[in-house]
TrEMBL record:
Pathway: Lipid metabolism; Phospholipid metabolism; CDP-diacylglycerol biosynthesis; CDP-diacylglycerol from sn-glycerol 3-phosphate: step 3/3. GO terms for molecular function: phosphatidate cytidylyltransferase activity. This is Phosphatidate cytidylyltransferase. Keywords: Cell membrane, Lipid biosynthesis, Lipid metabolism, Membrane, Nucleotidyltransferase, Phospholipid biosynthesis, Phospholipid metabolism, Transferase, Transmembrane, Transmembrane helix. One of its GO terms (cellular component) is plasma membrane. It is found in: Cell membrane. GO terms for biological process: CDP-diacylglycerol biosynthetic process.
C-alpha cells in the first residue's frame, strides 16, 4: 500500500480549495447573469484560446500578434453576443478565423479549430443564460450534468472496471464508467426536472443522457490533443487542476450541442 505523504494532503487541499472557490464564484456570476456572467465567459474564452495555442503551436504562440488577436476575438465574441446578438459574435469569430488561416497557413489549422470551438462554446453558454425565465437553471443544469457524467464515470469505472473505452487516448476510461456516468446524469436530470415547474421529466432525462455522452466526447477530444502534442495539462493556471481547458473540455462540447438544440427549437434546451 502506498504511503500518503503530507505533500499529497497539501495537494488535495489545494485542489479542493481552488475548486470550491472557483465554483462558488462561477455560481454567483451566473446567478447575477448579464454582464457578470458574460465577463466570466469572456475571460474563460481568452484563457482557453491562449492555452490551446501554446499547446499546438508552442511556447509564445499565445502572446504573438495573432495569438493576442485570437484571444481578444474569443473574448469579444462573448461580449458581442451579450451586447447585441450571437450572430455578431459569430461574424467576428469568422473574420478573425480567416485572418488566422491566412497568417499561419497549414501549421495553424489546429489552432484555428481551437479558436472556433472555444469561442462558439462560450457564446452558446451566454446564449443559454440569456433566457430570462430558465437561463440560470439551464446553465446550472448543463454544468451539473457534465460534472455528474465525470463523477459517475470515475466511480463506476473504479468499482466495476472492465474494457477500456478508448485505450490509446484515455487509458483510465472504461465502458462501465461511461454508462455509470450516463446513469448518474439521468438521475440528476430527473431531480432538476422535479424541482423545475413546466418541464417534462422523461424528456429532460433523455436530454441529460445526450449531454452526458457529448461531454465524454469533449473530454476525449482534449485528451487526444494533449496526447498528440505530448503534454499532461493544458497549463498550470488552476492550482491543483491544471488548465482551464482541462476543467471545461466536456462542458464546451455539451454547450455547443445544447446551443444548437436551443437555436433549432427556439426555446431553452431545458424546457420540454
Amino acid at each position: 500500500m502506498s504511503e500518503t505523504t503530507p505533500s499529497t494532503f497539501a495537494d488535495l487541499g489545494l485542489r479542493a480549495a481552488s475548486g470550491v472557490g472557483l465554483g462558488l464564484l462561477a455560481l454567483l456570476l451566473f446567478w447575477l447573469g448579464g454582464w457578470w456572467s458574460a465577463a466570466l465567459l469572456a475571460v474563460g474564452a481568452g484563457l482557453m484560446v491562449w492555452e490551446f495555442r501554446e499547446m499546438v503551436l508552442g511556447e509564445g504562440a499565445g502572446t504573438s500578434v495573432l495569438g493576442l488577436l485570437s484571444i481578444a476575438a474569443a473574448a469579444g465574441s462573448v461580449i458581442a453576443t451579450e451586447a447585441l446578438e450571437m450572430r455578431f459574435g459569430i461574424i467576428l469569430v469568422a473574420i478573425v478565423a480567416v485572418i488566422l488561416t491566412l497568417g499561419e497557413g497549414r501549421r495553424g489549422r489546429m489552432a484555428v479549430f481551437g479558436f472556433l470551438y472555444i469561442s462558439v462554446a462560450m457564446m452558446c453558454i451566454d446564449g443559454l443564460r440569456a433566457d430570462e425565465k430558465y437561463g440560470f437553471v439551464a446553465v446550472i443544469w448543463l454544468i451539473i450534468i457534465v460534472i455528474g457524467a465525470d463523477v459517475g464515470g470515475y466511480f463506476a469505472g473504479r468499482m466495476f472496471g472492465g474494457p477500456k473505452l478508448w485505450l490509446r487516448v484515455s487509458p483510465k476510461k472504461t465502458w462501465s464508467g461511461f454508462f455509470g456516468g450516463i446513469l448518474l446524469a439521468v438521475l440528476l436530470g430527473l431531480i432538476f426536472s422535479a424541482l423545475t415547474p413546466g418541464t417534462f421529466a422523461v424528456k429532460v432525462a433523455l436530454m441529460s443522457a445526450l449531454i452526458a455522452v457529448v461531454s465524454v466526447g469533449g473530454d476525449l477530444i482534449e485528451s487526444a490533443c494533449k496526447r498528440y502534442y505530448g503534454i499532461k495539462d493544458s497549463s498550470n493556471l488552476l492550482p491543483g487542476h491544471g488548465g482551464v481547458l482541462d476543467r471545461l473540455d466536456g462542458l464546451m462540447a455539451a454547450a455547443i450541442v445544447a446551443g444548437l438544440i436551443t437555436f433549432a427549437r427556439g426555446q431553452s434546451v431545458f424546457v420540454w
